[in-house]
Design brief:
The protein contains 1 helix and 5 strands. The chain has one helix spanning 60-74; strands at 10-14, 22-29, 32-40, 45-49, 54-57. A hairpin with a 4-residue loop joins strand 3 and strand 4.
Length: 76
């Protein structure tokens, strides 16, 4: 039997650590932080989950997708 559709609110927030040449974003699902993305200019994006697992991706969009997939696999 299938589950009903759930409404999920996904939000990307910039942190106060952002400055020229450095991007830091936090990803929230239903007001719960699920991970963080960091990128220095000209380098790959570092994705960190709440469990502390780090990985590298090419773009911020790939990092957001990775965090959402990890959340869906382990949390939902």
């Amino acid at each position: 039997m299938s589950k009903g559709n759930k409404k999920v609110q996904v939000e990307v927030k910039e942190t106060p650590n952002n400055r020229e040449g450095f991007i830091e974003l936090e990803l929230y699902v239903n007001d719960k932080k699920i991970g963080q993305l960091q990128q220095r200019e000209g380098q790959t994006v570092t994705v960190t989950t709440n469990s502390g697992t780090e990985s590298k991706v090419r773009t911020v969009d790939e990092g957001i997708n990775k965090l959402i997939m990890d959340y869906n696999l382990h949390q939902m």
